[in-house]
Design a protein that fits this description.
alpha+beta; six-stranded mixed sheet
């Protein structure tokens, strides 16, 4: 048992005389509060820490559950110091659950509109479902992660007529990625990573728009440094070419509660889901979303864009939900 938890459970007049159930409840509450405090402490310190902190940060809103349980235990065991501890944790969690950063309306008149869809098809398994969704939603640009050769071939066969322009990084399993576009594309340097992250510049009704697909490594135990480094590379890509509007979309394997993801937002990007009031909508794992999950799939846009009708789509045969949003490009800042 952590010393902090042990101290407050043992501190009080007549602690030895308390019923065993109350003492057990106090110890359980102390354990819950200690675990939650570690994660919240790293969030407050603007750090992702080491395993298991990055993994737990992805589900930070759900830490309200063990905190609430611990608070109930402290009330039942009449441990008032523990009650204060629990109330403080609840307050901090409520604070950090709020959307990160400030947003404002774009400056200038609207000059173009485009619909963007991003989907991780889980090793290509969800490609057929994605094709159905694309035909229904009619996006202008599609970002596809984990697109293996069979996925790439299916997209080419079924969608090439509607999306004649593409940029891809070929690869098997999770390594392949594709950007499909109705708009003309010219090549642009992508982001180097373990998995493919192609880039392009689209001609959207005469306006250049940078497109960058995101798919860094997940923060698996033993791979947290790779995850952090690849999110840093995406941050550097976002900061480059500040004069050109940017759409950075994909499976980031990160939420707003990860410091490495907030560094990307700090370059001046906004989450389209946040702009349209859909923040905290779970996109993974699809089997438990939207009841339980984390928002790790994002469409990030520069301040040139407004967003509307952001929605999350359930696709079959993939562990991710797709994100689609309508963007309006405004003339200059």
């Amino acid at each position: 048992m952590d010393t902090a938890a042990a101290e407050w459970t043992a501190r009080d007049d007549g602690c030895e005389d308390r019923p065993p159930r109350r003492r057990l409840g106090a110890w359980c509450a102390g354990l819950l509060f200690t675990c939650v405090s570690v994660v919240v402490g790293f969030r407050a310190a603007d750090s992702d820490g080491i395993t298991p902190v990055p993994q737990l940060l992805a589900f930070l809103p759900w830490l309200l559950v063990p905190t609430g349980a611990g608070l109930l235990l402290t009330l039942l065991s009449r441990r008032w110091l523990g009650t204060v501890w629990g109330v403080v944790l609840l307050g901090l969690l409520a604070w950090y659950i709020e959307p990160y950063g400030k947003v404002g309306d774009p400056v200038g008149r609207p000059v173009a509109e485009l619909r963007v869809l991003t989907s991780n098809v889980e090793f290509g398994q969800g490609t057929a479902s994605l094709v159905t969704a694309v035909r229904r939603e009619k996006p202008d640009v599609v970002f596809v992660e984990e697109c293996d050769p069979a996925c790439d071939a299916l997209l080419e066969r079924d969608l090439a007529q509607d999306f004649p322009h593409r940029r891809a990084v070929e690869g098997g399993g999770s390594e392949g990625s594709v950007i499909l576009s109705r708009f003309p594309l010219r090549p642009a340097e992508g982001v180097r990573g373990t998995m493919g992250m192609p880039g392009a510049v689209a001609d959207v009704d005469g306006h250049a728009v940078r497109l960058q697909l995101a798919h860094p490594m997940p923060p698996l135990p033993g791979q947290v440094d790779v995850w952090r480094r690849e999110l840093g590379a995406l941050r550097d890509a976002a900061a480059a070419g500040p004069g050109t509007p940017l759409v950075l979309a994909g499976d980031f394997n990160a939420t707003q509660d990860h410091a490495a993801f907030r560094r990307i937002l700090d370059t001046g990007l906004h989450d389209a889901a946040r702009l349209d009031g859909a923040d905290r909508t779970a996109t993974w794992p699809a089997v438990t979303a939207p009841t339980f999950g984390a928002q790790i799939d994002h469409v990030l846009v520069s301040e040139d864009f407004g967003a509307s009708r952001t929605r999350v789509l359930d696709l079959s045969d993939t562990d991710h939900r797709a994100v689609v949003t309508d963007l309006t490009l405004h003339e200059g800042r």
